[in-house]
Amino acid sequence: MEKATCRFPNWVSAKIVDFYAEQGINYLFDWQLDVLTEANESIDQHLIFSAPTSAGKTWKVASTGKKVLFVLPYISVAREKLHQIQRCWRRDDIAVCGFIGPQASNPNEWIGAVCTIEKAASLTNRSLSEEWFNEIGMIVVDEMHMVFDSSRGAHIEHMLSKVLLWNSMNSSLKNKEKIRIIGMSATIPELKRLGEWLEGGKVCEANFRPINLDNHIIIGSEMKRIGSEECFRKFSEDPLITLATESFLGNQQTLIMISSKLEAERTALNIANHFHELKLLDDSMMERLRERADGLLFIKNGLERHGCKDRNVMAALAWGVAFHHAGLTMEERECIEMGFREKNIIILVATSTLASGVNLPAERVIIKAQTRGPSALTSLSYRQMVGRAGRTGHATRGEFLPRTSLVGRIIYLYN
Does 326 share its domain with 384? Predict the structure, then answer.
């Protein structure tokens, strides 16, 4: 396993380095330093890289006074990134604003802008019509694999195509005056072809994970390691309920990924009902609840302040269980995400909206897989879900448990 042994490049501001040190990040992985060095030396090239984690990639452009656009797929992801970058860049008096909701800002008031995909497309159109497109120095597209999304990928493609066209029409410009594209994702398909599309952009790929994952598959009542036919565990009851109970009693934060909103709620309530029945038989269940009683009460009060009256939400929350899907309001989802980050919620049942970049790391991820229909599990969504398990700084090991009854298809997808 690769260790973080390299310090930050010497061109990174000492104030920015201090910020990361306060977060417990004093060193970079070798691949991170390689990407940063490549980005600094090849300023005339676009850059696409695929790797599980990253840190500190764009400060140098912002320090020149050029504007930087960060493009993220979802509002919750964008808000989280906005707060992180604002806390970091204010150390060097670099203004960062968000283009996430209905608000808009004067281009003279910011250097960095954190945007959702549609807002970024609108902002680039505005900069072209108002003739300040040349003030943009870099566009950073996180979750670059979204360019292949059937509904939203076109927004990314059109925006980046305008950058490529603008650069080519102004080919006489010096390198530092061209707009640079940085694409990032842990799961970019067709990586080399994307690099070719971006005018021969530099392609970097890192395949390691700082924390090893144990991959298993449950077929019926038997658990096997992926790639092995040997059964090393059998379940006498519902494996999902059994694993959730083990996680709760062992204080192992667990994400259960479900294909539909209705099924997510039903699963969360089933787990909570099982915990309610188990309390009569196991004193350790009540002990675990008492340990986080204050935290769960704080989450409950927060939900009520935002007008949440959903009985299912409150019934599950009483047992340290929650569900997360697009049917909840933004404020409700943020309360639940906060509760999971602070380890008051141990079991979180979620739809795929949570697998696309929200930083909610878990020690165990369980997928109740669906291999047919519009919510079918694909290799791309599988890798996104895998990324939630065993995140650096949050766990020492990760366990991933896909669950299905279709042997051939699921083994094929997971390989």
Answer: yes
